[in-house]
Amino acid sequence: MESGHSPIAAAGPLPPDPMSDACARFFRTHAELWRFIGFVSDLALRVDDMARLASEAVPPGVSGRPVGGGAAQMPSAEGAMARTLRGQRHVFLHMVLSRVVDSYIAYVAELTVMLAVNNPRALGPGEGVPLELLVEHDSIDEVVDAIVRDRVFALAASGLDALEAWVGDRFGFALFVEDEVRDRVARLIDVHNLIARHRGLATRRFAGADREGRQKPGQPIELAVDQLFSDSSLLARSVTDIDVRAADQFDLPRAVSPSLPIG
Question: Are 169 and 216 in contact (CB under 8 A)?
Answer without folding.
Answer: no
